[in-house]
């Protein structure tokens, strides 16, 4: 395995590896992805193995442009095209009815498929070079923190992949917003950088919520996820001098990291910050609660999942 800059040669090589059923780590604007041919069940199985991900947790398929949607989805509602036109390329994933050609390995056994067009030009160029839809879950071991730079990739992942393209730091740093368009009312399965408000403005009506009893049915909505090794604890008050964690105030040393007060900027550095603290092997990582405002929805979602206990 080698880590290379995404030159045109490297992108062509990544495309060749994907066509041959290999696995490549690629940068996207959200987080680094573990890319494989989405229509090749063998390659998809390898991605699940590398991540240690349960097979019922579906992968997101990445396309080079919206025109390719019909390669993986069918009965596409007008609303999907409208959302695609407004938000693609970008950090928004649509869940639609899958086409027969998409193996159930990719969709975790479901008849639906999750799909997006990434904004990162390297991701799109790799998909073009591969000349097929590319599945790319986050390039981390299951339940761990998603990598937002090559430095944050787990050594366990590195040894198992065929190539890594280093595209620098991910601009958004949180996974895409996932919208289900197969239920009666469009609903958000996972909040992300494209906010509920942005989508509702386009729709002209409120998005639905996933009822609590459906959470089990919605794959990937595990309570604990996006978590470092140390137990994370959300706190309402400012960190004490000796507490290891994330603060909105001045840090008292390398065991504390000062976080931005802007939600997007916070999201962009969150995983890298948790990773950095986790390397110090603290007993606990304390995180000062962010404001309870709508623009913090995606950050709150990840912090709640990171702080959930395993039981
Ligand atoms: P990622 O780990 O970023 O690849 O995101 C995958 C997540 O997208 C899953 O954990 C689910 O929450 C969601 N997802 C993917 N495919 C589907 C699907 N067919 N139906 C519902 N949710 C899906
Ligand atoms: Mg993930």
- At CATH level 3, the topology of the largest domain is DHBP synthase
Q: Compute the average pLDDT.
A: 94
SSE order, as H and E? EHEEHEHEHEEHEHEEEHEEEHEH
The largest sheet, given as strand count, sense and whether it forms a barrel, is: 11 strands, mixed
Q: What is the helix tally?
A: 9
- Number of E-type strands: 15
Helix/strand/pairing class, anyone? alpha/beta
Question: Given the C-alpha coordinates, what overall shape results?
Answer: globular
Unreliable residue stretches:
none
CATH top level assignment of the largest domain: Alpha Beta
Q: What number of structural domains do the residues give?
A: 2
Percent strand:
15-25%
What is the CATH homology-level superfamily of the largest domain?
DHBP synthase
Commentary on this structure:
It is a single chain. This protein is of the alpha/beta class and 311 residues long. It folds into 2 domains: 2-203, DHBP synthase; 231-307, no CATH class. It is 28% helix and 18% strand. It contains 9 helices and 15 strands. It has helices spanning 8-19, 41-51, 69-72, 78-87, 121-130, 155-160, 196-203, 263-278, 297-307; strands at residues 2-4, 24-26, 33-37, 60-62, 73-74, 92-98, 112-116, 134-135, 163-165, 177-180, 187-190, 231-235, 245-247, 256-258, 284-288. Strands 1, 2, 3, 4, 5, 6, 7, 8, 9, 10 and 11 form an 11-stranded mixed β-sheet that branches. A hairpin with a 6-residue loop joins β10 and β11. α1 (8-19) crosses α5 (121-130). The longest helix is centred in the last third of the chain and has 16 residues, at 263-278. The model has no long low-confidence stretch (mean pLDDT 94). Magnesium ion is lined by residues 137-138, 146, 175.
């Amino acid at each position: 395995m080698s880590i290379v800059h995404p030159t045109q040669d490297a992108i062509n090589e990544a495309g060749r590896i994907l066509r041959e059923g290999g696995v490549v780590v690629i940068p996207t604007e959200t987080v680094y992805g573990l890319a494989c041919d989405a229509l090749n069940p063998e390659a998809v199985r390898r991605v699940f193995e590398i991540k240690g991900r349960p097979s019922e947790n579906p992968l997101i398929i990445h396309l080079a442009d919206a025109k390719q949607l019909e390669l993986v989805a069918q009965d596409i509602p007008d609303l999907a095209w409208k959302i695609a036109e407004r938000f693609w390329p970008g950090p928004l994933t649509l869940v639609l009815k899958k086409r027969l050609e998409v193996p159930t390995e990719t969709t975790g056994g479901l008849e639906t498929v999750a799909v997006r067009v990434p904004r990162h030009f390297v991701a799109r160029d790799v998909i073009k070079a591969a000349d097929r839809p590319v599945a790319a879950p986050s390039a981390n071991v299951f339940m761990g923190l998603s990598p937002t730079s090559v430095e944050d990739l787990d050594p366990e992942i590195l040894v198992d992949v065929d190539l890594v393209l280093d595209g620098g730091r991910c601009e958004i740093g949180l996974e895409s917003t996932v919208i289900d368009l197969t239920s009666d009312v469009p609903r958000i399965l996972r909040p992300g950088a494209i906010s509920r408000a942005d989508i509702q403005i386009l729709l002209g009506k409120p998005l639905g919520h996933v009822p609590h009893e459906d959470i089990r049915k919605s794959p990937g909505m595990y309570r604990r996820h996006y978590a470092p090794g140390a137990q994370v604890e959300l706190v309402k008050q400012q960190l004490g001098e000796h507490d290891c964690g994330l603060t909105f105030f001045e840090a008292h040393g390398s065991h504390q990291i000062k976080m931005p007060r802007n939600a997007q900027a916070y999201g962009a550095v969150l995983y890298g910050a948790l990773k950095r603290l986790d390397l110090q092997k603290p007993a606990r990582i304390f995180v000062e609660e962010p404001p309870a405002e709508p623009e913090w929805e995606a950050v709150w979602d990840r912090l709640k999942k990171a702080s959930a206990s395993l039981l």
